[in-house]
Design a protein that fits this description.
mainly alpha, 2 strands
Length: 123
């Protein structure tokens, strides 16, 4: 149960941090030569989807500890007249998606905590 709570909490943190990065992109939409960024958190998503684990000492660890952190990547897709690469419409779409996912993670966390409370108190 704790593992599930930690995973949900980690995903909620990811979406919260991603929203900050996206807000920075939108805030710099008029800054010349600004390159937008995005937050990447592939390890958690891949680990949950594939359920990989190291079963032998000779196997390579599929998720080394240093890959656990969030990574900020620069996006080089667009270029405006002032060499600003921010597409505000796309950033607003990512912001809406991120907000929905964050609220979903918070609701999932509340649900898990309610289950825990019921199992402890018996009601």
């Amino acid at each position: 149960m704790w593992n599930k709570l930690n995973s949900i909490s980690e995903m909620a943190t990811y979406y919260l941090e991603r929203s900050k990065v996206i807000q920075g992109n939108i805030a710099n939409a008029d800054t010349p030569n600004f390159v937008p960024k995005d937050l990447v958190f592939e390890r958690q998503l891949t680990e949950q989807a594939l359920k990989l684990k190291k079963t032998e000492d000779k196997h390579i660890d599929p998720f080394p500890e240093e890959s656990k952190e969030f990574k900020i990547e620069e996006l080089n897709k667009y270029s405006g007249y002032d060499k600003n690469r921010v597409n505000v419409d796309e950033e607003l779409g990512k912001m809406a998606e991120t907000a929905v996912m964050y609220r979903t993670m918070v609701q999932a966390l509340k649900k898990e905590l309610t289950k825990m409370k019921i199992s402890i108190t018996g009601r």
